[in-house]
Every structure is written in structure tokens, then in C-alpha cells.
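Re: the 311-residue chain
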Amino acid sequence: MQKADILTIGTYPEWDIKGMEADYTLHTGVPGELSPAVAAKLRAVAFKGHSRFGAAEMDALPNLGLIANFGVGYDAIDVAAASARGIKVTNTPDVLTDDVADLALGMALGLFRQIPRADAWVRSGDWAAKGDFPLQRKFSGKRVGILGLGRIGRAIAERMTAFDMQISYWSRAPKDTPAGWTHVATPEALAAEVDILVVALSGGPETAGLASAEVIAALGPKGVLVNISRGSTVDEAALLDALESGALGGAALDVFASEPDADPRFAALDNVLLQPHQASATVETRQEMGKLQRANLAAFFAGTSLLTPVN
């Protein structure tokens, strides 16, 4: 039986390449630059990238029926354009929830206790030369606000309760939550009543800049912002200004407006903890994400229901 042809976009580890090669003939390249013969054969795209995949890319593949996204976020894909063309989009939710929630908590704790700087204090010899590391802030018992209580936001909140934290959240409508969790009407009101604001929104135009200058100002000089969602969800210019002036106490960030070239102003700050967009980057989770992406591809070519459709 002849293998179906698919286009892969992005860099995949060997285990994913082998997994796809077992069932498909793989092609790489930019949709608009493929030969007409190859473009016509491609009914599916395995997408793992941050570059825009919009109407022009879709139109360059005349028989495209599926864009199988690697990752829970799919803001790089123009879903509306895909729907208008009868193209299905899938993503890989759930399998990465634990890792992202773990890192969000770890970043918040690491910032409050300045764990990276304390590690450097020992390594550099400053402990012996300068004495004890400066006192830091207590983490347990803080008030935490979750901006976006989806799967990941809820998992973060559940972890925070183990640290005796008071949980408040913002979402477009109240959710069914454990007793004691409080829905707050606006992001600004949420920020005003918490010590830690965790941004756990999905990406895309609807959430762009939702953690606005007003939200950052409401957090105040003792407040901390944690972002494990997308760089687009935070007004980064306002965030930098607040961090530099002391209007915001600190930030722990796994995502940035410009990746991988984060604004150099961040590197000059000592009230930030920075990560290279690696919240889901464990071997176990990335393997599960690849399996789910391939399962959606298999369902599409078999004509059965997609496992995790977006549209």
C-alpha cells in the first residue's frame, strides 16, 4: 500500500521523524515554494512552528485537509482561514498540562526565593567571601490569581493550594471550582487583590495584551507576574517599564514577545527569572505530544473522528 504524503514544518526529534516515516512519505519546505506536483499530493501538514501558517500557505496546498499542530497553542495557524477552506486543525492538549503547571509553580517559587541567584552565590565563592545570601520573601500563604482558568490554569491553582494559597481567578464566565476559589470580574480587579498573577491564557488575537499596563500597575511594587502562556498575552513594554522602575516587584517568564531574541532589557534586571519557552520540554511530554499529533494524522487518513479537533 502506497504511503500518503505529508508536509512537515518545524524541527522534529528523531523519534517523531521515525514515527511519521513509518506511515507517511515526508516532505519539507515552504508551501509556496514546493513544486506543483508535490503540493498537489499533500493532504496533511504536521506543523511544529511559530511562523505564520495562513491563507496563502493553505492555498499553496490545493488538496490540504488537515493541519496537525504540535502543541496546545495554535495561534500561529489562521484557524478561521482553515475553516473557510474546509481544512481541519488539531492540537495536542492535556498531555503537557502537568509539565507546564509544574514549571509555573517552580518559576514562582524560584523567583520568591531567588533560587538561581542563590545557586550562583555558592558557585562563585560569594558565600565564603561575602557571607550569607540576602534574605528573600516567603512563598507559602500568598494570594494567587490565575488569569485564564483552562486546563493548565486549573492545574497551576491546584498546585498552589498545597502551599496554602488563596486562589482567585479570571475567566470570561465563572467555572465549577473547589470551595474557596473566587471568580473576579476583570483582570485588573484580579491583579489588585493578589500577590502573584499567573498568566495562563491561550494565545491569539482575543487575548493579545490582556495582561495590560493597567493590570501590571494593579499588581503593584510587591506583586509578581508569572507568564507561561504566550508572549503576546502581556504588554511587554509596560512590563519592562514597571520592572525597571520598581512599580512591579518581579516577573517569572517562560515566553516573550520576540522569541528566541528576548528583549535585552530583561537580562539587565535582577527581579526576573527567565526561561527559554521550555514549559512542556520534557522527554516524556514531548513524546506524548508527538504520539497525539500522529494519532490525529492517522484518524484523518482513516476517515475517522479526530482526537483533538480545534475547529
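The chain has a mean pLDDT of 96.
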